[in-house]
Each structure stands twice: as C-alpha cells, then as structure tokens.
Write a structure and sequence with these properties.
Layout (H helix, E strand, L loop, with lengths): L1 E4 L4 H11 L6 E5 L5 E5 L7 E5 L6 H17 L4 E6 L18 H12 L3 E5 L14 E4 L2 H12 L4 E5 L5 H10 L5 E7 L8 E5 L6 E9 L3 H12 L4 E9 L5 H6 L5 E5 L6 H5 L3 E4 L2 H13 L9
Parallel strand pairs: 1-4, 4-5, 5-6, 6-7, 8-9, 8-11, 11-12, 12-13, 13-14
Antiparallel strand pairs: 2-3, 9-10
Helix pairs in contact: 1-9, 2-3, 4-5
Bound molecules: ribose-5-phosphate.
Length: 311
C-alpha cells in the first residue's frame, strides 16, 4: 500500500504516514502560471493499493481539483485500487435542494470523485450520513466521537456534564456522544425566526442550569451557530460551556469571534490544517486524527473491519 497527499493538509498526511510507518509517496502537485494544477508522481504505483489524502477545505475548489487530478494521475499510472481519504468533505452542506432551481452540489462532488477514478472513499463525520449514499463506491464514514469522549472525560470528567446540540439537525450526533459519556443528559438549542427579518429566538430544550455544557457539532464555519448557542446556554444558567466540533472551517473572523465568546474552550480536530490564527488562539485546541485515520486505512488495506473501531 502507499500513502500519497495533495497540498491541503500535509501535517495530517505526515502523521498518518508515521502511524503506518510508511513514507509519503513522492509526488509534486504544482501550479502552472495560470493556476492550472499539474500533478507528477515520481515513483512506481503500478498495482498498488493507494490512499490519497486531501481535505476539500478552503480554498475548496482548488483543493477539490487537486484531489481529482491526483486520482486521475494514479488511475493512469495503473494503481490497483485508489481510496480518496477526505477527512473534511467540503460541499457536504449542499446535500439537498433548499429551494427551487438550486443544485445538490454534494452529489455533484461525489460524482466527480467517482468519475475521476476513486474506488473507495474514507471521510470523517460527514455532515449527513446519507452522503455515503451519494457515492456508488464503498464509503467509510469515521466518527470523531470516541476521540472527543476520551478528551472530555480527561478534561471535564469531574463536572455535571450536559451534552448540547446547537440545532435540531445535530441531535443524533449529540445523543451518540452523550451515550459515550455514561449517558450524560441531553439538551437542544432550537433556533427560530418568528418572522422574516426578525432576529432568531433561541429556545433551550432541557434544563441546563448549574450544568457544564458540552456543545457538539460537525462544522464550525463563521462561528455564529456556536457562539450564539453558547450565549443562550449561559443565559439559561449553564455554569460553563465548552464545544467539541469535528471540522474547524473557521472562515473570516470566526477565530476572534470564538476568542471573544463565553466559551471556555473550542476543541476541533486536525481534519483541516490549523491556520496561524487558530494556532495563536488561547481558546482553540486541536485533537489529532492520525491514529483513527491511520488505523482505518490499515484495516481497509488488510480488508478487516472498520466499524469495530467504534464498538
Ligand atoms: C449546520 O447544519 C452545521 O452543522 C453547522 O452548525 C454550521 O455549518 C455552522 O456554521 P456557522 O459556524 O457558520 O454558524
């Protein structure tokens, strides 16, 4: 087997390669003067089981194109099997038509990855489980919950914990985490805009007073959902609020928004490479995903069970 990486998250690729005790495949992913992407694999991959790593995070379109061209290069170099390892699957939030005459871009991206020549996909905390069905090739969706639960127990285990979903859509994810935390109680933030143009009303379903709340979500992008939920929980009497969110997209001024929020800590994974702002933040911490991804890759290569990682 071989591990190859495009440019979006080289630190994670190196950590996965170290976990597997393999060198990264020698490849260059470069730009022509007009920003066209050019990929050249400098070693033989004929007949190999190749895992190509790329998160399709910011700049999403460039990173997606790098992934597609890497897959094409591998296919034309006669790799036996190509697995696209996409820890953060961009475009996942566009998984349905929100209105007439709109696209389902997550499905389009799934088609592109498949048509480029991927035989399998491996991702982490897909925005919606159904996205697995957008691919007609085997797709493994790993969960960050066990890694998060271990960290929560180590850091905040002595508190009266309450797991909170920041919106109704995240309840299944929150319930799964609560189960891993000795069946901690669950609360839900229900956002409602009573009339168009009026600001959102945040209702908390569940009694959070006196509790140490742990917000759980798949994506923090602008930070709006997270910081508003943290504020609402504090107003409802929560003693403290920490957040565990798998993918730290953290666009625009999201980091300073988090730094100035009532959150004790925001814990993200390294599915997306940390920017300088994230590294400098006193409130944001990253959990390493290389052991989980590396182990899943090893099991896929050995054709052993991936789901048993989560038993
Ligand atoms: C939405 O359904 C997602 O799970 C996240 O809650 C959302 O993408 C976060 O976005 P933002 O940080 O911009 O509020």
């Amino acid at each position: 087997m071989k591990i190859m990486s495009a440019n979006s998250n080289l630190p994670l690729a190196r950590a996965i390669a170290a976990y597997l005790e393999l060198p990264l495949t020698d490849v260059s992913v470069r730009r022509f003067a007009d920003e066209e992407i050019f990929v050249e694999i400098h070693e033989n991959v004929r007949g190999e089981d190749v895992f190509v790593l790329q998160s399709t995070c910011y700049p999403a379109n460039d990173n997606l194109m790098e992934l597609l061209i890497c897959i094409d290069a591998l296919k034309r170099a006669s790799a036996r099997r190509i697995t696209a390892v996409v820890p953060y699957f961009g475009y996942a939030r566009q998984d349905r038509k929100p209105g007439p005459r709109t696209p389902i871009s997550a499905k389009l991206v799934a088609n592109l990855i498949t048509v480029a020549g991927a035989d399998r996909v491996l991702s982490v905390d897909l925005h919606a489980g159904q996205i697995q069905g957008f691919f007609d090739i085997p797709t493994d969706n790993l969960y960050a919950a066990p890694v998060m639960a271990a960290d929560i127990q180590a850091r905040f285990g002595g508190h009266e914990l309450m797991v909170v979903s920041p919106d109704v859509g995240g309840v299944v994810r929150a319930r799964a985490l609560a189960k891993r935390l000795d069946n901690a109680p669950l609360a839900i933030v229900d956002k409602r805009r009573e009339k168009p143009g009026e600001s959102e009303v945040m209702n908390i379903i569940g009694d959070v007073s006196g509790r140490f709340c742990v917000l759980i979500d798949d994506i923090v992008d602008s930070g709006g959902t997270l910081c508003n939920a943290a504020e609402a929980l504090k107003q409802a009497g929560a003693v403290d609020v920490a957040a565990y969110i798998t993918h730290g997209v953290l666009s625009g001024n999201a980091v300073s928004r988090v730094d100035n929020s009532g959150l004790t800590e925001l814990v993200i994974t390294d599915s997306i490479e940390a920017t300088e702002a994230v590294k400098n933040s006193q409130r944001i911490r990253q959990l390493p995903m290389a052991p989980l991804l590396g182990e899943a890759i090893r099991r896929i290569a050995d054709e052993s069970s991936v789901s048993s990682l989560f038993d």
